[in-house]
Structure formats: structure tokens, C-alpha cells
Amino acid sequence: MERTLVLLKPDCVQRRLMGAVIRRFEEKGLNILAMKMMHVTPDLAREHYAEHVDKPFYPGLEAFITGAPVVAMVVEGLEVIGVIREMVGATSGLKAAAGTIRGDLSSSRQMNLVHASDGAEAAQREIGLYFRPEEICSYEPTLIPWLKAGDEA
Ligand code: CMP
Question: With contact defined as beta carbons under 8 Å apart, do 117 and 128 qualify?
Fold first, then answer.
């Protein structure tokens, strides 16, 4: 089992698309272990987007991500990091494939609705930025026998 950090970004909250996006993860059978609405501070934005801080688009990205609340989530599942990246789609909503969250719901490179960790190391680091260990509610979903065969680890 893997865990990943998902953020429903300010455009997702403002556009009332939180339910539509969460629904896709639930329908896929993924397990939401933690979820909270919060403001991203400029300090947190700089930590989260450390690799982008020196890029020309960073000031706009920081203003965007701190400009309204986000919903942060920890999501668990088999190969969940890759599965959610596929569900989210390419960075720009204009390039993202139809059927993905961004492809279906976004027409922007910056306002692309959802952030999802891009690898195991990023997931661990980003989960630690947004959640204390005691905020993560591990549980055994009772419908697992109906989501995958017993030999699918
Ligand atoms: P995300 O997947 O959260 O990772 C970095 C974010 O920066 C990205 O989604 C976009 O919101 C934003 N971003 C990436 N590239 C650009 C760009 N060229 N111009 C503006 N924003 C960008």
C-alpha cells in the first residue's frame, strides 16, 4: 500500500468542485485517511513548492495557492501515487487528456484544481508538511474484498 498527498487547490474550493473530485477518488476505491480545509501560508507554499521558488511563475503560484483555502488529503491505495497522477492528468488543463480531472474540469496551467505528489519521496515529505502523524486515521475498509482479488497485494 502507498500513501500520497492530494491538495484540492483554491480554484477547486471556489468553483465548488471539491465533491466532484473527492467522488472520483472514492469511486476508484481509494482510501481517504485524512482530510482538512486550511489556508496555505506563504512559508508553507515556499516549502511545498521549494523546487519552483526560483521560477518566474512562482510569485503568481504563491498568490494563487495562498489566496483561498485548500483541502489537504492523505489518500491510500495500491500504487496510489501513480494512479492519482493518472487520474489528475497533465499539468495544464489545456493539455490534460479528456477523462482526467484536469482534462475534464480545468482550462488553465496554474488553476489546475488538484495537486498530487509525484513520487514516493515527495509523498512522504508533503504528507509531513500538511499532517501530524496523529491526524492520519488508518483503517481497514470493509469493502476491500469487493475491490480487488486476495492475491493483489
Ligand atoms: P502542481 O502539480 O501543484 O505543481 C506545481 C504547480 O505550479 C502546478 O501544479 C501549477 O499550478 C503551477 N505551474 C506549473 N507550471 C506553471 C507555469 N508554467 N505557469 C504557471 N503556473 C505553473
Answer: no
